[in-house]
Amino acid sequence: MIELLDSIPPGVIYLVVGLIIGLESVGIPLPGEIMLVSAGVAASQGIVNPIALGVVAASGAIIGDSIGYAIGKRYGRTLLGWLGRKLPKHFGPKPVRQAERMFDRWGAWAVFGGRFVALLRILAGPLAGILGMKYRKFLIANATGGIAWAGAVTTLAYVFGLVAGQWFHRFSWIALLVTVVIGWLIVRVVRRRAAKADEAEELAAAEDSDAKVP
Question: TM segments (predicted)?
Fold first, then answer.
């Protein structure tokens, strides 16, 4: 990979890195992190400028996530409606409402931390749009996460070379496993609270109906 990058003009490298990271953030499964690590190693050999590389990577992440958010907000409800008809147990109104409550509470951290986790980099933007996260809140989490991720990956790849790439690969999948476990626990808690809230609403509605009966 480094030999290949050495034969490509720096401007093209910046363009390719930004494009791949951007498309990955939109929701297309591309190796954005691997590409950034390789470019970071190339920066350590003077092929590209590490600061410019970090700026391009962060910009691609932020813009791509924003596009993914817009797509999710525009078309996500249609997709959820179709899935709700096919799989009502998992995508019906009640589970979607529970997911919205969970994302409203933890969504900013999911967007920020998802930048460092395999697969979540692809899903965070579209999911935030689908579940109606406010764009201002999303943008803050998206921008800080994108800058932190791009800066960390570029710096570590620049300092430690290919070893950093192997470390990031392992960390991403470990982080994914931890995130899945934590997410499962949060879903359990949210579902219990949502069920209690629904029961309370039904009880209040029943009492109100009884009170109106002469």
Answer: 12-30, 51-72, 106-131, 138-161, 167-187
